[in-house]
Every structure is written in C-alpha cells, then in structure tokens.
Amino acid sequence: MWAHRDAENEIVDAPAIFPKLPDHMSPTPDDHPDLVKESLLYKEFLAEREEILRHKWIESEKAGHDVGFEKALLDWILKHRSSWRQQRQQRQQGA
To answer: Any residues with CB less than 8 A from the CB of 77 and at least 6 apart, and which?
Structure first.
C-alpha cells in the first residue's frame, strides 16, 4: 500500500493530491466493534474505497488537477468495478 497511518492515525506517504478525510469518514480499527471489523461487507467497502481513491489519484495526475471524488467514483464504477470485483472474487476463491 502506498499510504499508511502513523501513530497519530494521520495518513503519511500519500501524494499531496490525496485528501485527508474528515475524522467521521476515516475509519479506524478502534472506532468499530470486532463484529464490524471482521465483517466481509466492511472489508469489501474498505477495499473498494481504496481502489476508488487510487483511481482518483491516477485520473487527477493525468488531468493535472484534482478531478474530485464524485467524478472518480462514477468513472471507476462505470469502467472498472465489474472487472475489479470479478478479479477479487477469483483471488478469494483461490486462496
């Protein structure tokens, strides 16, 4: 992963264009009960969110400016979500 959180739970080693999410939108393991942390739905949400943010960064770099989360989200859903889910499902079945 090209970005991680430090001891103060701040994102580090991320490109400058990668926005820091508001605290209420930035999930941390301490904020959620074990049931939620271990749920498949939550893990899938986090994985998808990471892919969308990566797509936003790539598209913003290509455009030379921040394309915004909503545009990146819609673009990723239309162009990449189906194949990403299929590949992820195949990897999980093979593991």
So the answer is: none
Domain definitions of the chain by residue range: 32-95
Burial (CB < 10 A; 0-12, 13-18, 19+), residue 55, is buried
Question: Residue 25 burial (CB < 10 Å; 0-12/13-18/19+)?
Answer: exposed
Query: Residue 77: pLDDT above 70?
Result: yes
CB 72 within 8 A of CB 52: yes
CA 68, CA 52: separation in Å to the nearest integer?
11
Whole-angstrom distance, CA of residue 84 vs CA of residue 7: 31
Q: Which two tokens stand for residue 86?
A: 């299929």
Predicted model pTM: 0.61
On the question of pLDDT at 3 being above 60, the answer is: no
Looking at the predicted structure, is the pLDDT value of residue 27 above 80? no
